[in-house]
Amino acid sequence: LLFLSETGGKDRRSGLILTIPLCLEQTSMDELSVTLDYLLSIPSEKCKARGFTVIVDGRKSQWNVVKTVVLMLQNVVPAEVSLVCVVKPDEFWDKKVTHFCFWKEKDRLGFEVILVSANKLTRYIEPCQLTEDFGGTLTYDHMDWLNKRLVFEKFTKESTSLLDELALINNGSDKGTQQERERSIDLNFLPSVDPETVLQTGHELLSELQQRRFNGSDGGVSWSPMDDELLAQPQVMKLLDSLREQYTRYQEVCRQRSKRTQLEEIQQKVMQVVNWLEGPGSEQLRTQWGIGDSIRASQALQQKHEEIESQHSEWFAVYVELNQQIAALLNAGDEEDLVELKALQQQLSDVCYRQASQLEFRQNLLQAALEFHSVAQDLSQQLDGLLGMLCVDVAPADGASIQQTLKLLEEKLKSVDLGLQGLREKGQSLLDQISNQASWAYGKDVTIENKENVDHIQGVMEDMQLRKQRCEDMVDVRRLKMLQMVQLFKCEEDAAQAVEWLSELLDALLKTHIRLGDDAQETKVLLEKHRKFVDVAQSTYDYGRQLLQATVVLCQSLRCTSRSSGDTLPRLNRVWKQFTVTSEERVHRLETAVAFHSTAEKILQECPDQPEAFNEMDQFDEIEAVGKSLLDRLTVPVVFPDGSEQYFGSPSDMASAAEHIREKMKLVSLKKQQLRQPEATTPES
Hints:
Largest sheet: 5 strands, mixed
Strand content: under 5%
CATH class of the largest domain: Mainly Alpha
Distance between the termini: 223 Å
Domain CRAL-TRIO: 1-142
Keywords: Repeat
Oligomer: single chain
InterPro entries: CRAL-TRIO_dom, Spectrin_SESTD1
Number of domains: 4
Strand order of the largest sheet: 1-2-3-4-5
Number of strands: 7
Number of helices: 17
GO molecular function, one term: phosphatidylinositol-5-phosphate binding
Structural class: mainly alpha
Protein name: SESD1 protein
CATH architecture of the largest domain: Up-down Bundle
């Protein structure tokens, strides 16, 4: 039964040749009948009208099987069969079994049956229409024909089923309402087989058929026009055309459905983004209105805001993707969806940009609040440092350290001024931003929240202003105190300097003011210079006293005890007393020297012709007494009030002054002797 086939050969009447090869195995008549029905269904009606020639190959079968097959043909295809050629074996069947004469049964069978050997089959059929099994030249590969037939049957079945499915899908898309179209498309949207695969199979089959015909006509291979009918090349082409048409419509339906689905998905995602941004996203921003009351609080709010931004970023990423998809659909140019797509794009963009602006505004506000609190904290630390510096009692070592401390104080105060100015600028900028917060409040009254923020900012600035003002007041007091301390140190230094000057004057008086003059005139000049020298010393002493008095006043004002004025006043008084004693001694010596020189000069200058001037010898006694007294004082040290002693000049200086006085005393003594000699001569005469 496997090789029961139509070989494509034709008899002399152009009828198709049907070959039934029989074998030794048991042949199922039912299967043979079904196979015959299938084979007879293949040719066209026009081809069937020309009749069939059936070749029953009984060379490998028994006579009773051959007879049964021939009789079966009567029941299956009596009208189509015109001739049955039973190919008998070389050793003919026994006459006992072949007594049945088919030719006598022609009228009853409806067709002619002949028994013929294989080598004589060409009497009835042309060799070119017989296969090699029957001595012909017709090229026929039964397995090739069977495989192609199976491919054709599969293609026919699949394409027919696919056409019905595609027609149902395509016709469903043409229904009246959109809802009906969508329901119909949803129920039959996916075909049971892949249209591309079926089309590829059909094209390959058609290509094979066309290639076979081309090779047969040009390559010399035997070919019969029945190939077009047996393998149904026109049917394949017709099915392919129908499939292409329906598949094109199906693709359009799928495209429309895909576009609609994509549009619905985009719309759904857009609404998800919009609903979240206008719902939970906006609610998150509405609950975050504070700015914090410190750096740490502002940083905590910034961290919370970053978490909110992170959640928004996920939805903004969806927005970017959706915007790209919408832009791609808009570029596709489907006018029916342009309005809806643009509306979706505009709605999505408006919501996202508004939410992004609110996030940016909130971030800027928190950053401004952080900067404000940072400046406030820095200013507070500066004020604390300045206050700490002002609260510490000033105990400088000298005026230079006071000046340095005062300079540092002024620098800190200037830094505080700059810090307060920066705080005001930051605060005003923050207040300006807070005043704009109501623009994105979604109708929520943020007056109370804003008032709390405004009160906090203004309170911080006012508190810093008050603290700065208190520090300024304390700086003024400290500045005055420090200036008084500078003046105190200056007075103490100047007083000490006055003591030093006075000590230098005393030292100069003792060491350099030792000459007594060679005559009365010079001594008087020295005396006058000494008085001026004393005036200078007196001024120095008075200046020191005034400075020390100012020191006392300043100490009382500063409520402190001067470290140096306590011993400066005794030193000043001690030096001044020493100077006074020394000056008095100097004056006494100069005055004595003036008296000595005046008297001596008067005696020495008087003319010896006037002896009446020297009648009283007591003048000589007086000059001698003065001279001796002066010489004695030159050898006596100056005794200070504390009991200490100090000599004028060096011993050599004193010896020189004493020598000069002695010489003058000698001159006076000689004068005295000269005056006495005339007196002695006169009585004798």
